[in-house]
Specification:
Blueprint (H helix, E strand, L loop, with lengths): L3 E4 L1 H6 L11 E5 H10 L4 H18 L8 E2 L5 E5 L17 H15 L5 E4 L3 H9 L3 E3 L15 E6 L1 H8 L3 E2 L13 E6 L6 E6 L3 E4 L15 H11 L5 E5 L6 H15 L5 E5 L16 H5 L4 H24 L13 H10 L3 E4 L12 E5 L7 H8 L7 E6 L17 H9 L5 E5 L7 H9 L1
Parallel strand pairs: 1-2, 1-5, 2-4, 5-6, 7-9, 12-16, 12-17, 13-14, 13-15, 15-16
Antiparallel strand pairs: 3-4, 8-11, 9-10, 10-11
Helix pairs in contact: 2-3, 7-8, 8-10, 12-13
Amino acid sequence: MVKNYILDTNVMIHDPLCFYKFEDNCVIIPIICIEELDHLKNREGMVGYHARVAARELSNIRKLGSLSEGVHLPDGGTLKIELNHLDYNILPDGLDMSKNDTRILAVAKKLKEVYAPTHTILVTKDLYMAIKGDAVGLEVQDYQNDRVTSDELYKGYYDIQLYSEQIDAIYAGGIPLPESIDFEVFPNAFFHIKSLDREGHEIIARYDGTQLVPLKYTNDISWGLVPINREQKMAYELLMEPEVHFVSITGGAGSGKTILATAVALQKVIEQGQYRKIVFVRPVVAAGNEIGYLPGTEEEKLRPWMGSFYDAIENLVDKKVLKKQKEVQAKGRVVYSEKPEFSVDDFIDQYRRYGVIETKTFTYMRGRTLSDALVIVDEAQEITPHLAKLMLTRAGFGSKFVFIGDPSDNQIDNVLVDAKSNGLVYTIEKMKPSRLTGHVSLKQVERSPLAKLAEGTM
């Protein structure tokens, strides 16, 4: 049976192409939501961009017929902009009638009555709107189309047991997936394999899409950094492997996501020249003013948001200098142990002037093609699936993209997404079947004992 789905404005901001994703049902947009889109179109960052995309898509649909009467969509269903049925009398006392949310509730409540017995559902990503909608007797749903449905996010690795003969064969070059593995295995998944018949005999192997093979980069060092635990070794393998063009790394604060990605980027670009430049990208999701209200150039505006990258580079440069000092001391020469006179800002500014390092936000990504670049997107749990797709479609020849973040709800400040609908988890689930991609979830906190305590108990 055909249903009526009434869209809140935030659904269009979350996914500007949402109109086509309700199958053969009727999508209804209260006119006040169009007013809200108009108000949001000049906002900085992802909100303004999504508002403009949604408006352009509505303009395209408008060419197919009258939006006030309803337009039949190419793949089924209809879209209508509701101009009437704003009846405050149908709502209970206590609601602020001056708020747009209340107006949307009034329209939805009246349409439920007008279209009965047709099923009418309010779709919103606003928790408060959902609570109020339920309180006034509406059926309310979250936008389901791009939510991850599995209860547990793909980790990227498995723990299994095999016989020592099989482990030796992996060390020797690789073996096909054993018949004992009765679950689906995606390319570039890792296996921590322990022996069934010899204590202490084990290996970490990667499934290359054909067979289980030993890790290739276990003895490599990137900009003085060595992976500490098994999950970091797995992530490091994906970051170093040139045939893996998209890497996603999740984990809590202090698990090493940013410093691992940054170390490999510095090694691959500055030391080895495998890529032409590093592009650091960070979504700007603030509790207060957005980036447009900050003074200065793009780089100066972004500086407060790029703290994680600056911290990572500072730690790595210190490691590099300390390593050099030890090498010189080993040769019998006297060195001073002070930090170098230049700062991390000097380091980044120097390479930025040569075009080797870029710091960007999503506002400046549209229309670009990033070729021969290693692109690191930090805090990717803050972006929508639409923006994640926008980012990955910037990939040119010879590029590698790395998404890092913590997709748990307590690390998401963007009201448009949650732990099951953000661009990071959506991308992980959509991309995991490809041999071009790999994912690892980091478990251990390595920043400090205090950080580990806080992450585990608070």
